[in-house]
Amino acid sequence: MQTRAKITPFQFYTALFLGRVFSLVAYISNIRTRLSSEETVYETLFMGVLLLITSLPTFFLIKKDSESSIITRASCVSKIFSKALCVIFLIDFYIYAIITSGRFEIFTSSVMFPETNMALVLLALLAVAVYTAVKGIEAIGRSSIVFLIPVLSVFAFVYISLIPDFNTLNFTPMTSDDFSQIFGIGVYSCSRTVEILAISILLPFVRGNKKRGLPIWTLIITATILITNIMLEGVLGEYNKTQLFGMYTLALIAEFEFIERLDALISCVWMLCAVIKLSLTFFICNCLFSELFGKENKLLYHFISAAVIFTGTTIISGSMLDFSNVITSATTIILYLFSACVIPSAVIIAEKVKNGRNGNEKA
Amino acid sequence: MKKLKIIPLALLFLILFSSCTSGETEIKNRLIIEGVGVDFDEKSKDYEVTVQAFATSQKGGKDNAASNPVVNYTVKGKTLAEALGDLCDVTGKKTLYSQNLIIVIGNSIKGDEIIKSLDFFAREYTARADVYVAASTGKASDILNINENSSEIPAKIIEESISESYKNSISVDTELYNVINLYLEKTTDFTMPLLEVTKEENGKSSTVKVTGTYIYTKNGEKNHLSADETMFFLMLTDDAKKGNFSVVNDDMTVGLDIIKSSSKIKTYYENGIPEFDITIKCNVDMVEYDAGDFGSFKADDVEKVEAAAGKFIANGVQNLLYRQLKYHKSDIFRFGKRFMQSFPKAYKETEENWEDILPEIKFNIKVKTNLRRIGQETLRQH
Hints:
Strand content of chain B: 25-35%
CATH topology of chain A: Amino acid/polyamine transporter I
CATH class of chain A: Mainly Alpha
Number of strands of chain B: 13
Oligomer: heterodimer
Shape of chain A: globular
Largest interface: A-B, 22 and 22 residues
Number of domains of chain B: 2
């Protein structure tokens, strides 16, 4: 994967951060079991630790060679191995993109325009994402920086305006010694940070020191999720448990003097993050297709990806039950652990074995 | 050439992405709801919903601007969704709840029916979670039908009265999400502002008054707080913003304004009974001192007023606690939640029979009152 177009680590990690922010705001709370406020704090901290641990294989991958993608390195070991990885990653990213656009569709049809034809909205979203991806990684990187400012501003604005509504009495303590749920949900939360997978693939498109950004990125993500969870519990209390999109409800309640419609702002954040997340996915899928079938038909690859994501989303988001049946925590956990931990570790081990053999042959 | 391509693209966007293509979203085609009153007809077992909406199709102009800006509709149905769905047939317009300011629950709706009647507003996508919820001493429709022919919007006036009453510690201000939050807490009973229609002396016009606080009790018992009790309730729960009260005893009659009030509640658990230490700090300004002599207020009197005010508040809080915990067995103070936060394991053992524990709860009340200002009159040293 040789490339001339490159972005800075800050742009790169910002794009990944916005992708994770989308998963945070688009979180459908009734899909998983609910925890008490105290357990939620432990769960988020545990998720942070787990995120650091599961990002270790990627970290070591970058440490050894930060200029080649995981696919290129796999192809040095074996061509079949690299092709197999491309297929696995393609399936992974398609599933994650379907989840992303499915959540977007459920959000739009539940709280914004329930009577609008969602297929058109979805097509518009995919068209924007494809267009951004066609423009290349630089466009995604630059857009991320531009989007970061409104996204952070909206979050800060909503949270600050909700301080008067924050009540510590809304917090619920842990009433049992059973930590299994905390661990289980912590693993699930971690598995929703699919952006880690993108790091090992997009390495050649990032210049400078990429290693340093990874732990900082995981810490910022953990802090963002922790603050959001604390606000959700402190402001909404038990009501949070009843809400499909807690973050949206939070914005609905927030008001600052004469500005009473902060929910419109959070909807914008939602869309900006969805565009970045999906355009990054399209870009990655295009890279993987190029590895498999050559770089000649780049636009065609984008259209294939868009068609797959559109069809998948239309099928699973038909009803809430279908969505929750397909998007189980087990599906995302297995996919994440396999792609973020097993595959990078396998590549590192395979490289070592091959280098060892080469060394022996030379000796 | 590249720039020229933008022109047809922009035109295409203008045509395709217009928000008003169907006409349904035009303001004149929407029924913008300002207030909703929910009653229950025992005979037909139907919900009777009174809806106050903007008269959007009314013609403008100077004369019309002074006329009634709202229209009231009454619809019936087995569910709120059915009743409100009928509004479209009646008006030919699509309902929009995002501007709804208040939901008034009539006295015909009791117990868990209150929560059931709010479900629609919690689910409806255009409704807002921060809409005020209030109870009426009579029919909810009477509240919204008040001054129907005035140029003001009744729902807006009621919303403002609730907000002002809360600021003056006469009533609570309860938003939809708070009602549901407190309802879902196993041991807490939630409160709502209580509205009443009062006839003017001339008997012709009526006004809506916030008379105190309605209490939803999990045991279904009828319960409410007077305006005075509400002040003590808000002081106890650290929600009192302002307010005023008078202390009348043999030595003095004093009018005091609350400037700032804060409270701290510490939870203890001894011998299987929860215990609460309540400390209330209150800053007050003296606005009236009736000793029959101007300029007679002495430095020594400051302590007397502070002590009398402190005693007045402590007695008020104690009576409130006694009435609610021991008589009504109602926990509007979130003592159960406080106990849960401090002693989660002990709480788990007692949550099922919390109502039986309420009368046994021990509480110690301390009130520290500080007289901040005495008005524009001088303070005599001797």
